[in-house]
Amino acid sequence: MKNIQLTRREFIQSSSALIIGVSGVLPSLDAIAQNQSVPTVLGPNPSALDTWIKISTDGLVTINSGKMDCGQGLDVAYAMIAAEELDVPLSRVHVNFGDTRISANQGGGSASSGIRQGAIPIRNASAEAKRILVGLASKELNTPVEQLEVVAGKVFNKNNPAQQITYAQLIGNKNFTTSLDWNKRIGNDMNVTGLAKPKPVSEYKLVGKPQSRRDILSVVNASEHFTAHIRPDNLLHARGIRPPVAGSSPIMIDEKSIAAIPGAKVFREGTFVAVVAKTEWDAVRAAKALKIEWSEVNPPFPGGEKNVFNYIKDAKPTFTNAVPMFFGKKEYNPEPTLAALKTSAKVIEAEYFAPFQSHARFAPSCGVVDVKKDQVQIWTDTQKPHFQREGIAKFLKVTPQTVEAKWMHGAGSYGRSDADEAPYEAALLSKAFGQPVRVQWSREEGTAWDPKAPAAIMSLKAGVDTNNQITAWLFKAKGFNGWDVKFNAESPEHTLVGMQTGHKKWTAFNFNIPEESYKFPNHVHWWETVPSYLNQASPLRTAHLRAPQEMQTRFAQECFIDEVAHATKIDPVDFRMKHIQEPREKDVLKAVADKFNWSINTKQKSSGDLQVGRGIALYNGYQSYAAVGCEVEVNKKTGRIWVRQIVIAMDCGLIINPAGVRAALEGQIMQGISRALYEEVHFDENKVTSVDWNTYPIATIKDIPGKVDLILLNRPDKASGGVAEPGLVSIPAAVANAVFDATGVRIRQYPLAPERVKKALMV
């Protein structure tokens, strides 16, 4: 295998590419390119224009996307792009998401790829559709193409506007029967092109102007259908039953203990136990009433959460790498850096700590599956319905062509959450009982048993000379594996029930290192992963959470940048500007600093127990650039932190829908504050004890910032970047830096919860 450095920008989320190498990491792109054949197509062919676009007899344009919407209003952006290329009214474009029956596998929702990757084939297909339609109109109107123009879905003769024909008249409810050039990729990198070239940005009339979301009313008035609402005929309701101690197995099940509940039945395969009943309440009652004797096992989490960072420090690494996140293996050599540190006039060093965090979806996992003899129908709110289809086909041992997954809206997402768990369980139970089954996880399961963001320790050192110039820079992240289970559920071993029924977990390793353009002499950075506490079916199995492993690493880097700046008596903004190489990073940083009037001291705002300070942090990823600045108020008596003001400057290239970008950033602000101030998985030696909103608190309405300023740097000359994660990543670092500015105390572990703050301030 050739060792190369690869970034997330080069990440191909392709089922044909995801082959585990003997080293335990995924192979490099060079190796993939040498061995890659045309991947198997399940469902519609990506090379058919009709896969992407349909036009009805009333002129409605339907776009079929293999993505899904994590609540960002992606359908509006896609409709804008299609309407722009086709020259039709925005109101006449409808977008379907994630239905495997009618869409190609574009990878679902991941890596902020909805616009930066998922929109590209839609733009290309729309441009090609217009070219074909204008060509058809040329024949119908007996007019050269050069004399034709399109307005609002009508093609007319510029010299004789009365001579016109509509798209609906040309092709309504008919097929284009046109082939596109498909790049033979499955997943995020899927693209198709036609003979037509999309419009230049200079001709855009719709893209770049704010457009409102379409789903707000249906959500508010509860007319929107979620997975939990699906009720096929003859439906059974089910609940899984989790062991009281992680890793224990059922020895004896007393089925008579639920005999009084009408129609309740018990299912067991491997260590997975569930009950089914005709009503949801009866399933809940049966799950609580069923008597099970469980095996005795050694405590799976020695020392509980109090010992987690000692465990990480002492654990022998399972793998080490210097690749930022995804494919390949990059070697590194810390020796020159260590040598430079030894000869430095001063060495600044610090360790930063990140806990396990839960996806904590507002509504836990729900799946409805109907397994018939020759067809399997799945209703799911997973981020990756096409991959879930493949995984459930493997789980049931049926051909994937007979399985269809229909994506539904879900209440929370972002990463490899518990969304895949209930559909897998429902599939197993539906096959066993011969009826459609709905599995609804509880709040306790959704927090205690979902895949978690990995806990980690980041160790940093900086050397400086007698002139306070940097001589060396070392960054090491050591934590639980970001790929303990995979970022999609394309195979049963990546799910809880899959592991419980005998599917052995894969072996691949992943963490993260920062990718911002800071340039230091003798700069080295790498990551190490440690063994999981419990290898199979663990409530602390780890996987991708929104901005996977980036919040951990940027918390450390951006706080340490602040520490080194203060130690060398340089303003934190000036220090960053001095060492940043990427102009777009400088632009977002300057925009935040200017908005904050950074040079003005905030100390005069502090009074008594209320201390006020400001902090700033930077992020570069998903082809976008974001800087976050915040002003916080620290109550020294209670330990509560309130973000009085937050400013985010975002450069995501060409902006499609400014209103969508702003809404996405507003959501990231609240989740960022939540993860910065509250979210932490608690566990003892036997189990996860975070089981509800009291034991796993999140931000609430009282945490809304006093003032929010969003600065969008539109770059029409640059490709659109990702928006769903960049504003989130650096919020904990900006908050922690602001707390230092307010109190003079460094808190190097998030969340900065009240008790941790009071302890740090020795109140």
From TrEMBL:
A Pfam family annotated for this UniProt entry: MoCoBD_2
Protein source organism: Polynucleobacter kasalickyi
Gene3D superfamilies: Aldehyde oxidase/xanthine dehydrogenase, a/b hammerhead, Aldehyde oxidase/xanthine dehydrogenase, molybdopterin binding domain
Domain of life of the organism encoding this protein: Bacteria
Name of the protein this chain belongs to: CO or xanthine dehydrogenase, Mo-binding subunit
Lineage of the organism: Bacteria, Pseudomonadati, Pseudomonadota, Betaproteobacteria, Burkholderiales
GO terms for MF: oxidoreductase activity
Domain Aldehyde oxidase/xanthine dehydrogenase a/b hammerhead, first and last residues per copy: 221-298
